[in-house]
Amino acid sequence: MDIETKIDIIKSFAAEIVTEEELRNLFASNEHPVAYDGFEPSGIAPVHFGVYRAKIIKKMLSMA
After folding, report:
1. pLDDT score of 2
2. Domain extents for the chain?
3. Which residue has the higher pLDDT, 6 or 16?
4. For residues 5-15, b (16+ Cβ closer than 10 Å) or e, as one string?
5. pLDDT value for 21
6. Widest distance between CA atoms in the chain
């Protein structure tokens, strides 16, 4: 998968990225970068939240 496609996937769900250029450099220099999922539950999460999280993880794994 090319770098621009990976960036488009990340931008489709990420709330924020540092810069596109930094993301581009990361994908260019590291074939398998590690992602940090900043999820912190506070109370009972609604059912749709679990579905949404699974979809995001599936998108991230599609780039592997």
Report:
1. 92
2. 3-61
3. 6
4. ebbebbeeeee
5. 94
6. 39
Which ranges constitute the DSSP H helices of 1-64?
3-11, 20-29, 47-61
CA distance linking residue 35 with residue 38, whole number of Å: 9
Contact 55, 41 (CB under 8 A): no
Q: Say how far apart CA 53 and CA 39 lie, in whole Å.
A: 9
Output the pTM of the full model: 0.73
Q: Could you tell me the two tokens for 16? A: 């924020």
| Gyration radius (Cα) of the chain, Å | 13
C-alpha 40/C-alpha 51 separation (Å) is 16
